[in-house]
């Protein structure tokens, strides 16, 4: 897979990436809650000039059942152009697809085909014995290897951490951490690559999450509420920043794409004090890291009669911020509120003073807002995983989060849908609404765009 020239989808800077041609395909991980059928990769046509625009044009079933596909990523990206990268001619070709529940990691070839083809399976035993981890989650393409975070230990509930896979063979090389300090819980990670800084967040260990949100743990403030900062080169823990234990489940991390900057955004699912959700900015204060809350999204009052059992005592719908995404030019932040069924658009040109400039409502625990392409169809679920095109003009959302959470927050069924929002004017595209049987009974989760997107690539040049 070595090329004579750098892959044309690699860009040295975010400015160059923003001028990339529009994506024509979107890859979507979809899973079967019952674990009786295989999960799948669905491929959507995203070319507005195509007669198949907005439809599923490719499909690949996984070979096993019970994987629960969640997040996934590319084997290589623009970080391969960093001046110290040992593999500058690696090719963006393979999708690295972890099963969050099974702990398998699949490698799918996307080159010269619409439906991805399986080329390798990393079994749970290989991940466990070589790295000591299970429940793989986030995938990022680093300059010297593939980084895969994991929520659990191998044979133990924790700690979670990060495993490194070889760029070419996809073999598990081992555990990334040399000194993990006080870090135990894991979830997402990303980095300020030019500053040799890696950041990780916290959700919970497998026993804390796999049966859904555990009320005693939530009200006991036991889920993750910290950010961890690491020396990327030395692989050592440097500092933890505690957001406060009322802020439960610090999930998605989105650092600035500009490699000269050292700030980023972190989303927090819920505050146990008032059910609000929040977004924080991490930044430097002198030589130390700090985090500042810059967005608070309040819960919305609701009749207990309209709420699932888990929320009836509270008489309100929590926003449940479960994903955020930052445009490649670092000017727009998108915040998914899976509980209230809302996608918010913020101007974050000043990251410490976000300004809400757009909102779209779809689904929601109470609202069940419809898509304009099917105005009579009440939608379940809400905007969840959000992905932004490299030029920042198109925003894609899917409605599925995590099977055990579906059962708690949408007990009558979460359905299956995907939508596209045009960022200018922030309006739904009525031509793009695959839903229902389009996903063959599976639930769509994360989206990866052909050639890269706002949450896939890192850049070494401003």
Structural summary, described in words:
The longest helix has 8 residues, at 124-131. A hairpin with a 4-residue loop joins strand 12 and strand 13. It is built from five helices and 30 strands. A four-stranded antiparallel beta sheet has the order 3-2-1-30, with no helix packed on it. The protein has a four-stranded antiparallel beta sheet with strand order 4-5-6-7. A four-stranded antiparallel beta sheet has the order 8-9-10-11, with helices on one face. By secondary structure, the chain is mainly β. The chain has helices at residues 14-17, 124-131, 206-209, 215-219, 403-409; strands at 25-31, 38-45, 56-65, 73-74, 94-98, 105-109, 117-122, 133-141, 146-153, 161-165, 172-175, 189-192, 197-200, 226-231, 236-242, 247-255, 264-271, 277-285, 288-297, 300-301, 316-317, 321-326, 332-337, 342-347, 355-361, 386-388, 394-398, 418-422, 427-428, 443-449.
> What is the structural class?
mainly beta
Shape: globular
Q: Total helix count?
A: 5
Low-pLDDT stretches are: none
Let me know the average pLDDT: 97
User: What is the multimeric organization of the chains shown?
Assistant: single chain
The percentage helix is under 10%
List the helices and strands and how they pair.
Blueprint: H1 14-17, E1 25-31, E2 38-45, E3 56-65, E4 73-74, E5 94-98, E6 105-109, E7 117-122, H2 124-131, E8 133-141, E9 146-153, E10 161-165, E11 172-175, E12 189-192, E13 197-200, H3 206-209, H4 215-219, E14 226-231, E15 236-242, E16 247-255, E17 264-271, E18 277-285, E19 288-297, E20 300-301, E21 316-317, E22 321-326, E23 332-337, E24 342-347, E25 355-361, E26 386-388, E27 394-398, H5 403-409, E28 418-422, E29 427-428, E30 443-449
Antiparallel strand pairs: 1-2, 1-30, 2-3, 4-5, 5-6, 6-7, 8-9, 9-10, 10-11, 12-13, 13-14, 14-15, 16-17, 17-18, 18-19, 20-21, 22-23, 23-24, 24-25, 26-27, 27-28, 28-29
